[in-house]
Amino acid sequence: MKKRWSLQEDVDRSVIGLLSLQLGVKPLLSRILYLRGIKNWDDAKNFFRPELSKLHDPFLMSGMDLAITRIEAAIKNNEKILVYGDYDVDGTTAVALVYSFFKTFYENLDFYIPDRYSEGYGISFQGIDYAHKNDFKLIIALDCGIKSTDKIDYANEKGIDFIICDHHLPGNRLPNAVAVLDPKIEHCKYPFKELSGCGIGYKLIQAYSKRNNLPESDLEQYLDLVAVSIASDIVPIVDENRILAYYGLQVLNNRKRKGFDAILTLAGFNKKLSITDIVFTIAPRINAAGRIASGRTAVELLISDTPEEALNSSEEINISNAERRTLDQNTTKQALSMLEELDDNANKKSTVLYNPEWHKGVVGIVASRLTDKYYRPTVILTSSNGMATGSARSVKDFDVYKALEACSDLLEQYGGHKYAAGLTLKTENVNAFMAKFEMVVSQTIETRLLTPEVEIDAEVRLEDLDAKFLRILKQLAPFGPGNMMPVFLVRGVKDKGFARLVGNNHLKLDIYQDDYKQSFPAIAFNAGDKYEKLLENSSFDICFTVEENEFNGNVSLQLNIKDIKFEYQKTYCPKAFLDKNS
Question: What are the strands, taking DSSP E only, across 310-418?
Answer without folding.
Answer: 351-354, 378-384, 387-393, 413-416
